[in-house]
């Protein structure tokens, strides 16, 4: 059965990997979105793409109450779905891939073996820190870190050990928080690393508490990107580094008002599987940070460097261990597994971008 299941998809995966290796990196021009103090951002419907921007003068109090009510319902639905999805799937992921629940960083045009993938996930952390300008220099080491959307704490524990820093991780999943703390305690990090169930849009921390704000692949789950970025900035101390690594849709061309209908349809299917709200572009994240007067803002498309990841996840799911573990989880996880080829398609068609965005809060 194992070999039969694997052979049914190996040719497809090989085609995906060849397509990735042969595709040159496409960097689209950055579009600009005017953001000012008299503009309010409200989350769009979960369908579609990007952030809806409305002039506050055009929104009546009745409309605003209706918008807030709809957004509140959507937020509650998303939070429940996200928590249940990760409650179900985290054990499966840890059993096969370990404690880092994010993409790996790979050399372009190089075929990675299964044994390379966990080291690629560590490399993703290191490459991200390098891109942000954080070195191992003792004078530049962060002393307090928040891991927003921490999963089972892989990044939190790694960063704490690397820098000798205190780290707090937040997640919507009670099972993730409990497992993350158990792993920290087992590794002798219980006095430095802690985890709790909390909302990234309403973080339970004081203003200016952390000198490294870390968000590794959690921004895509946030229904209000403006509030998400505001919270990251709020909890950052003066001079702190803020790092956002997230899935985005491609930047729009100057002649475009939105994504093409077929692009939106593909992203909608992914949203349904992974409990994601509307996608936004890297350019929109940059504009949000600019509107908050952040400094040293940098962004880059790393899609080329994560190319082998989803084919590798599919391959691991098609092993006997992967299949039997998947069937023991639940429908949300199984539904997510069926959507994995859609992620490959999105990257291949340059609809999905793997974005890294960093900045510094002014002193």
From TrEMBL:
Organism: Papaver somniferum (Opium poppy)
Name of the protein in question: Methyltransferase type 11 domain-containing protein
PANTHER family for the chain: MAGNESIUM PROTOPORPHYRIN IX METHYLTRANSFERASE, CHLOROPLASTIC-RELATED, METHYLTRANSFERASE
Domain Methyltransferase type: from-to ranges: 146-244
Region of interest (SAM motif I), ranges: 145-154
Region (SAM motif II) residue spans: 208-216
Pfam short name (any one): Methyltransf_11
Domain of life: Eukaryota
GO molecular function, one term: S-adenosylmethionine-dependent methyltransferase activity
UniProt entry keywords in alphabetical sequence: Methyltransferase, S-adenosyl-L-methionine, Transferase
Residue ranges, annotated region (SAM motif III): 235-244
Signal peptide: none
């Amino acid at each position: 059965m194992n070999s039969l299941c694997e052979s049914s998809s190996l040719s497809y995966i090989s085609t995906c990997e060849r397509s990735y290796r042969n595709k040159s990196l496409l960097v689209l021009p950055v579009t600009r979105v005017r953001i000012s103090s008299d503009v309010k951002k409200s989350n769009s419907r979960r369908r579609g793409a990007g952030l809806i921007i409305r002039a506050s003068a055009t929104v009546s109090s009745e409309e605003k109450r209706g918008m807030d009510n709809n957004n509140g319902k959507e937020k509650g639905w998303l939070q429940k779905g996200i928590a249940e999805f990760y409650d179900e799937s985290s054990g499966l992921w840890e059993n096969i891939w370990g404690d880092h629940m994010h993409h790996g960083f790979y050399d372009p045009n190089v075929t990675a073996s299964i044994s390379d993938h966990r080291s690629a996930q560590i490399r993703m952390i290191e490459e991200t820190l390098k891109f942000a300008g954080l070195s191992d220099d003792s004078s530049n080491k962060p002393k307090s870190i928040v891991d927003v959307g921490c999963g089972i704490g892989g990044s939190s524990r790694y960063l704490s050990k690397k820098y000798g820093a205190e780290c707090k991780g937040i997640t919507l999943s009670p099972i993730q928080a409990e497992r993350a703390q158990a792993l920290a305690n087992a590794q002798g990090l219980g006095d430095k690393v802690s985890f709790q169930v909390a909302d990234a849009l309403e973080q339970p921390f004081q203003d200016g508490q952390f000198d490294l704000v870390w968000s590794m692949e959690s921004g895509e789950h946030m229904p209000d990107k403006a509030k998400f970025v505001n919270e990251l900035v709020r909890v950052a101390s003066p001079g702190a580094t803020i790092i956002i690594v997230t899935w985005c849709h491609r930047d729009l061309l100057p002649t475009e008002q939105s994504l093409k209908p077929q692009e939106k349809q593909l992203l909608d299917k992914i949203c349904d599987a992974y409990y994601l709200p509307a996608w936004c572009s890297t350019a929109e994240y940059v504009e949000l940070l600019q509107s908050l007067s952040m400094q040293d803002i940098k962004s880059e498309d790393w899609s080329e460097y994560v190319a082998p990841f989803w084919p590798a996840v599919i391959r691991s799911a098609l092993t006997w261990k992967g299949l039997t573990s998947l069937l023991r989880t639940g429908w949300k996880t199984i539904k997510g597994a069926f959507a994995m080829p859609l992620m490959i398609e999105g990257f291949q068609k340059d609809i999905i971008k793997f974005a890294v965005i960093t900045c510094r809060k002014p002193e």
